[in-house]
Write a structure and sequence with these properties.
The structure holds 2 protein chains of 2 kinds.
Chain A: E1 7-8, H1 11-21, E2 25-29, H2 32-41, E3 45-48, H3 53-59, H4 68-77, E4 82-87, H5 91-99, E5 104-108, E6 129-133, H6 136-144, E7 149-152, H7 162-180, H8 183-193, H9 197-206, E8 213-215, H10 222-230, E9 236-238, H11 240-243, H12 248-260, H13 265-272
Chain B: E1 4-8, H1 14-23, E2 27-31, E3 43-45, H2 50-59, H3 63-71, E4 76-79, H4 81-86, E5 87-91, E6 103-108, E7 119-123, E8 133-137, E9 142-146, E10 151-156, E11 159-165, E12 168-171, H5 175-178, H6 182-191
The chains are: A alpha/beta, B alpha/beta.
């Protein structure tokens, strides 16, 4: 806060940045060079991390917050917002990211959780947080902890969209049911969702989450982006799908265009041509670790 | 039915503008392709990422038709990224970023700092009845230089953040986020 008449870190300011990212693509990048490619392609923001989820999955070990030097190099390279990931419950990593001036912190299941019971108290921060969710109850618990943006988790690093679709359908399906419930039923919904009744009542009134809902986890093609946008995602995160493909710059541009024009199949068809190989992808049943199961 | 106006919907906070204008009785259309410009009498350029929107304006073939309509005097309201897109000169932008030059301003991107510096404040707005305007600034730009023909309506720290030239109004902040419809109302009166 620089003077008495100016207030920072409010709900409106935190959720407001998410509003500005709508209709856009947020891309995972691990180097300043990749960040430049992402910005050139039209990314609305970049997520600075040390390894993309596909590599975290392959290499194993504990995945942590990125090196501040790498985050700063990326901040110095691009003019779009820079996001970075902290481990679930690791509020000290989040404090470091805030001190570095990142624009959004992702309390992310892609990194190894630091706390098996508690997520970060996100109200304590000026920087806004995005959190993953697989269903409506999880989304509302994260919002009650102060998340200013929810993303469906999907299954990161697989190039397989099926989990993201499941999560989006679950969240939107339950929102539709909640809007049909009468007042006594909303208390039962709150119990079933393990979420604060006030937020459940707010959803019943508004017919939507009180914060924006984006999609992450498994997007590898322009048509994947068009699919999840039509299923109600308001923007997309693309992790391994761009820089694990044959031709990242071209694929990144194509996914940006498909996200902007997600209802226009002719444009999606046009930009889907000649992109080279997509990332290889994995069947969910063959995974050793399901990242989406992290978080509570 | 009120006037038909468009909201550029390639990327950004377009829906909040659509809701605000619809609440005031306008017939509002999303603008994503040149065909969507048919019959509109005013246009809103919303907040979002100006580098992304600028790129998508070129790719969708919208840049030149919008520039023509603006040159012909179509009323326009630009907020945040929209202000950047309407300015004649851009500081700290990308070299390939194009703008419409509808308002004689030099605008600096992200001038108030990063997201942790984003803020809300009450602004005194020249000529606006009903008291201060509650303004939300998100990684906002400000004006470094305003041309002689530009009317400065509000400032923060001495920097213009709300300006008007002819039928174009630009704000560094987000009237669509604060629920105060007075600037949208003024835009619709410009359209009539």
């Amino acid at each position: 806060m620089t003077d008495a008449s100016r207030t920072t870190g409010t709900d409106r300011v935190k959720r407001g940045l998410a509003e500005m990212l709508k209709g856009g693509v947020i891309m995972d990048v691990v180097t300043p060079e990749q960040a430049k490619i992402a910005e050139d392609a039209g990314a609305v923001a970049v997520m600075a991390l040390e390894r993309v989820p596909a590599d975290i999955r392959r290499d194993g070990g504990v995945a942590r917050m990125s090196d501040p030097a790498m985050i700063e190099a990326i901040k110095a390279t691009v003019t779009v917002p820079v996001m970075a990931k902290a481990r679930i419950g690791h509020f000290a990593e989040a404090q470091v990211l805030e001190a570095l001036g990142v624009d959004y912190v992702d309390e992310s299941e892609v990194l190894t959780p630091a706390d098996e019971a508690h997520h970060i108290d996100k109200w304590a921060f000026t920087v806004p947080f995005v959190c993953g969710a697989t269903n409506l109850g999880e989304a509302l618990r994260r919002i009650s902890e102060g998340a200013a943006l929810i993303r469906s988790k999907g299954e990161a690093g697989t190039g397989n969209i099926v989990e993201a679709v499941r999560h989006l359908r679950s969240i939107h399906g339950d929102i539709r049911k909640v809007t049909q419930a009468d007042a006594p039923e909303l208390f039962a919904w709150a119990k079933q969702l393990q979420a604060p009744v006030g937020l459940v009542q707010e959803i019943a009134r508004a017919g939507r989450l009180p914060v924006p809902l984006f999609c992450a986890g498994g997007i590898a093609t322009p048509a994947d982006a068009a699919l999840v946008m039509q299923l109600g995602a308001e923007a997309v995160f693309v992790g391994s799908g761009i820089f694990k493909s044959d031709d990242p710059a071209t694929r990144a541009k194509a996914i940006v265009e498909a996200t902007a024009h997600f209802t226009d199949a002719h444009i999606v068809a046009k930009v889907s041509r000649g992109l080279g190989e997509a990332m290889r992808g994995q069947e969910i049943a063959e995974l050793d670790v399901k990242l989406a199961e992290r978080g509570w | 039915m009120g006037p038909k106006v468009g909201v550029l919907a390639l990327q950004g906070a377009s829906q909040l503008h659509v809701d605000a204008l619809a609440e005031l009785g306008a017939h509002v259309v999303d603008v994503r392709t040149p065909e969507h410009l048919a019959g509109i009498e005013g246009l809103v350029l919303p907040g979002g990422e100006s580098t992304t929107i600028s790129r998508l304006l070129e790719l969708s073939g919208l840049f030149d038709p919008i520039a023509e309509r603006l040159a012909a005097g179509m009323p326009v309201l630009g907020t945040c990224a929209g202000m950047i897109l309407l300015a004649s000169e851009l500081l700290d932008g990308r070299p390939d970023q194009r703008s419409f030059g509808a308002v004689d301003l030099a605008v600096r991107r992200n001038a108030f700092g990063r997201q942790v510096d984003s803020f809300e404040t009450d602004l005194a707005v020249a000529g606006l009845s009903g008291g201060d305007f509650h303004a939300v600034f998100i990684r906002a730009p400000y004006v470094e230089r305003a041309g002689a023909g530009v009317e400065v309506l509000a400032t923060v720290d001495g920097h213009p953040v709300l300006c008007r030239q002819g039928a174009a109004t630009v704000a560094a902040f987000h009237p669509e986020l604060s629920g105060d419809l007075r600037l949208h109302d003024a835009f619709l009166r410009e359209v009539h």
